[in-house]
């Protein structure tokens, strides 16, 4: 077995162990333990969602980036902010359920403010209608953040601001994705926002499920608040 495959197998084992967590406390505990190795582990997975989301936002954002305020929901260690910083964005507020992840985000020096919040169980600890961009990457999937968070993301965004979300399209997440798609369409019908882009990405990240090989696919959504 090569060193690379051994590393991948160890990362796979870590992620599959998270699926055994059922309560919110157990899930937060998992992320608290994972925080130290998170960046290295997702690099092994060739996890592209943070850069794909940042690029999607960048391609549509025409205002002054240095002045824009970005809310990074489920910010983790700060991977999304890292990519957005390279694209000219400078002001970030991060929210996450894991104090250890927030600690790593704090160390990055990218965020002006960081807040702990159990996403989906309590309101986002921010003022509604105050962000130019709201982004959530990685957390919209089965067993993590409920789809009801989509309305909170919209509420936090300024009129005319952007909301970027990602989810996976692998077998384990198909039911969740279908429910998410339905909610996003419903919000568009309610004229809360308009869809700017839905991008299907084939090589999203390396598969860790026992049912799948190679790479799984994923989706980037971009909406504009009305």
Automatic annotation (TrEMBL):
InterPro entries: Methyltransf_25, SAM-dependent_MTases_sf. Residues 70-161 form the Methyltransferase domain. Pfam families: Methyltransf_25. It comes from the Eukaryota. This is Methyltransferase domain-containing protein. The lineage of its organism: Eukaryota, Metazoa, Chordata, Craniata, Vertebrata.
